[in-house]
Amino acid sequence: MEQPQTPGHCGLSGRVWQDPVQQYREPAVLALCGMLDISVSMARVLAARDLMDEGNARRFLNPCQEQLHAAELMLGMREAVARLGHAIESHEKILVFGDYDVDGTASAAILYSYLKRLGARVAYHIPHRITDGYGFTPSSLREIQAWGAELVVTTDFGSTDLAGPRLLREIGADLVITDHHQLGPTRPDAVALVNPQQPECPYPFKGLSAAGVAFKVVCALDRHLCDKGFWARQGARRTAPGYYLDLVALATVADMSPLLGENRVLVKLGLAAMNAQPRPGLAGLIKECRIRGAVTAAAITFKLAPKINALGRIGDPRMGVQLLLSHSYSEGRRLARFLVELNRQRQEIERAAYLSARTQADAMADRPALVLVGGDWHPGVVGSIASRLAFETGKPTVALTLNRQPDVLGSARGGGGFNILQALEDCAPLLNRFGGHPGAAGLALSPANLTAFTERFLHAVERTRATPYPSATRPLAIEAWIDLDTLTHAFVEELQRLSPFGFCNPEPVLAVRGVLLANPSVFNERHLRFHLNGLDGQQLDAFAWDRSQWAVSQHVRYDMAFMPQVYEGPGGGRPQVKVLDLKCSD
User: How many angstroms from the chain centroid is the CA of residue 160?
Assistant: First the structure.
C-alpha cells in the first residue's frame, strides 16, 4: 500500500515540500490504470500533470508523426513557399541568415542544407557577436550586398526588426522572415513573415523553436515541389524533411522550448533519429562529450548545446553550422574537439564574471530586481550570468557590460516566472534595441541612459509584482508518494514514457517515507552517495549531487524526494535515484 500524505515542511536542502494536489479521486486514478494498462504510481504522476483524460493521456504517452500539424496552416507560409520556389526555379542567390545560438545555427543549417540539396544557389551567414552584432547591422548588410543576395531568409530573428527590410530593399534584396519570437506592435515589411506567434496565425501550436519553424518551411516547400513534379524534372533525389528532425530536437531542447504538444513529438522523433544514426558532426560531438548510452534531452542541455553555444558567445558561430553539416566523422571530431576546448575557456571567463556579479547582487538584497553592470565582462557570457542569478535569487535580472562601446550590451531574465519582455517594453524609450521571449531577452542602450534605465526597470518590476520579490527558496513539489519496492526497473522504464524531459515537462519528482541510508559516503569532495535496501532485498544506488555538506546518519529514517533514473552500465540498465532532498521521518 502507498503511504498517505502528511503536511510538507523543509528538508536538508531548505526547500519546502509540497504534497501532490488532489485534483482527482482515487477511483478515477484506478480507472485510468485500466484504460491505459499502467501502474497506479504512473497514473498518479499523470494525475499530478492533469493528464486524466484518456485521449490526451494516450497522445502524450505515444507521441508520433501523425500528431504533427500541417505546415501550411501557418500564417505567411504560402507566401514564403511561393517566393522560395520562384528563387529556386529562377536560380536567384538566396542567403540564409541565422542567429548565433544553437537554435539559430541549427535552423540555418536546416534551410541551407535543404536548399543546397535542391540545387539552389544558396549561402548562409551567421553574424559574429562581437564584430557583426545582432541582426541586420551595417557589417552584415555589407556582406549581404557583397554576395549579391536577391532573397534573404532569416531564421530565429526578424519579427521586431523594422529597419532591416527597408535597408535590404535599398540593396535590392527581398526578405522572408522565419522566426518564433514575440512580435512588436508594428509588423516588419517583408515578402513573408512565418511565425506562429503572430496574433492572427491559426497554427494550433505556438511553442515551436526557430528550428521547428524552419522544419515546417521545409515541409511546406517539399510538398509544393512534389506537387510541381520538381524532383522528376530535375532528375534529383528527394531529401525527405524527416532528415532534419535530429537538428530540430537539438535546437528545441537547447532553446528551452516547452516539451509539450508538437515539440514533444518533434523531440521524440529527433532523438530517435539521432541515436539510430547520428550525422557525422553530432557523432563527433557526442564522442568528445563522452556521452554513454542513448542521447537524451538532458544530454543535449548539459553536454551538447553548451559546446555549440560557446561558439556564439566567444568564438565564430559559423563553425556551428559547419559542425552540423560535416560530411565526415573525422571532420566532425576535429571540430568537436575545438568546441570542447572553447567551452572550457568560456567557463573560465564566465566564472570570473559571475563572482563579480554575485558580489553586486548580494549588495542589492533589498531590491525587487537586479541590474548588474560589469566594466570588462565578455558580452558572450552576460546571458548566462543573468540566467544563473535570476534562478538563484528568484528576481528579474539584467546583466550589462561596458566591454563594447558605443552601446551597453546585456541580457535579461525573468526570475520566478516574471515577464521580462513586458518590463523592457516599459523602458523602451531608453533602449536602442531589445527583443526576445517573456522569460529571456537581449537589450542595448547608450551609457548615458544607464542610470535612468536602472530606475525605470526597478519601478516597472515593483509596479507589476504583487510582492516586492519572491522568496529565493523554491518549493519542492512532490508528484506521487510511493513505496520503495515500487521502484523497480520496470517502473522506471514505464516513467520513461513521459520523456523527453525538459522545460514544461520535467522529470517526475517522487517521494518515499522512512528509508534507511546504507553506507553513506562523499565522493569527488562534492557529492553524497548511499544505498537503499528494499524489502525484497534489492539494493538501489542513490546520489545527492553537490550535497556533501548534508550530515546524515545510518541510524535515522528519512523521507526522501527523488527523481528515478536508469543507469546504463556494462551489465545493462538498472534503476538508481537522484536525491533531491531528505527530511527526518515523523
Answer: 21
